[in-house]
Write a structure and sequence with these properties.
Strand 10, helix 8 and strand 11 form a beta-alpha-beta unit. Helix 7 packs across helix 11 and helix 8 runs antiparallel to helix 9. The strands form three sheets. Strands 1-2-3-4-5-6 form a six-stranded mixed beta sheet. A five-stranded mixed beta sheet has the order 7-8-9-10-11, with no helix packed on it. The C terminus is likely disordered. It is built from twelve helices and 13 strands. By secondary structure, it is α/β, with parallel strands linked by helices. The chain starts with a helix and ends with a helix. The chain is globular and about 65 Å long. It has a domain of 209 residues: Ribonuclease Z/Hydroxyacylglutathione hydrolase-like (Metallo-beta-lactamase, Chain A), CATH 3.60.15. The structure holds zinc ion. Zinc ion binds next to helix 3.
Length: 326
């Protein structure tokens, strides 16, 4: 990190109330004074960020731009507060502004979460529990402003934006065109496999196969020539291909476990989640449902499972079994 600091790039870990731990904000003293991501909207994160900026000789009012790697609360939380203090321009993926209410506003998110959970076989009482628990964090939401949207393969100053949907639809990699640093957000993190969260396309309501999408995106990142990766959580690293390979191996191992949890008669994603994580409750169960569904879809794309709808509910069935029964 010292080498990066000598070129004006600094990591500022900020506290979050989430199990993931600290979220990184990066300060880049380039032609424009830039922050990548903006921590969580808590007084603790604000205190840490402003104190560290002062130590680095930067006044908050001088920040000129905030570039968001994706629209999750631990990454965009303080952007409004920083903008109010500095008038910085906030850049994000074109879908970020539309996605924020769908993630966090109760009535909006119910519109897509309810049919999604029903389709995955979640019982009605658990649907309500999951929706209620997801809104416990609504105090961390602010009146966000996105001033400019970034475009695929287009520069924002010296950084090229590359869209990497998977963990979220708005995940964007920013690569410095000469230094080859990549701000990877939650797309690529050492020792952490990002959970591709459930979602539907806003325009047509079609549920996306988020883990399939993530694996495709990660393959593209693996091919890039990069010097340093600066992730949204944890320490920067240089060996991005081995970190990507470790992530692929982890996905493969998890996929085998998911496959073993599917009985010959078939199971819904919710059944599989309960079989794999019998003791989990509430929000943890939701995140496991996201992971299990992603794996079922990935296994189907590999021809190892197939899906069928029974009364509008998705069931996955091992592929060998259908061959035998035919
Ligand atoms: Zn994050």
């Amino acid at each position: 990190m010292k080498q990066l600091e000598s070129k004006g790039l600094y990591r500022i870990p900020t506290p979050t109330p989430f199990p993931v731990g600290a979220a990184n904000v990066y300060l880049y003293k380039g032609d424009a004074l830039t922050l990548f991501d903006a921590g969580t909207k808590t007084d603790d994160a604000w205190g840490v960020l402003t104190c560290r900026l002062r130590e680095l000789g930067v006044a908050l009012r001088d920040i000129e731009q905030i570039i968001l790697t994706h629209h999750h609360l631990d990454h965009l939380g303080l952007s409004r507060r920083i903008k109010d203090a500095s008038n910085a321009i906030v850049y994000a993926h074109p879908e970020a502004a539309a996605q924020i209410p769908y993630m966090y506003d109760e009535s909006e998110s119910r519109l897509y979460l309810e049919p999604t959970l029903r389709e995955l076989g979640v019982p009605a009482t658990v649907v309500e529990e999951i929706i209620a628990l997801r809104h416990l964090n609504s105090n961390l939401l602010d009146d966000f402003v996105i001033d400019k949207t970034v475009a695929e393969d287009t520069p924002v100053g010296p950084f090229e934006a590359h869209f990497r949907p998977g963990h979220s639809i708005t995940d964007t990699l920013y690569v410095h065109h000469t230094e080859r640093w990549a701000l990877t957000g939650d797309h690529l993190i050492r020792n952490v496999t990002p959970n591709p969260l459930l979602r539907r396309r806003l325009e047509n309501g079609v549920r996306e196969h988020t883990l399939v999408q993530y694996c495709d995106a990660l393959k593209k990142t693996r091919e890039l020539e990069l010097s340093w990766c600066l992730p949204g959580h944890g320490a920067p690293f240089q060996d991005h291909r081995s970190v990507a390979d470790a992530t692929f191996r982890h996905i493969e191992r998890r996929g085998e476990k998911v496959l073993q949890a599917v009985p010959q008669t078939g199971a819904t994603p919710y059944d599989v989640t309960c079989a794999l994580f019998p003791r989990l409750k509430g929000p943890e169960r939701y995140y496991c449902l996201c992971a299990a569904t992603g794996h079922l879809e990935l296994l189907e794309s590999q021809g190892r499972l197939h899906s069928a709808r029974r009364d509008g509910v998705l069931h996955y069935i091992p592929q060998e079994h259908t061959t035998i029964s035919r």
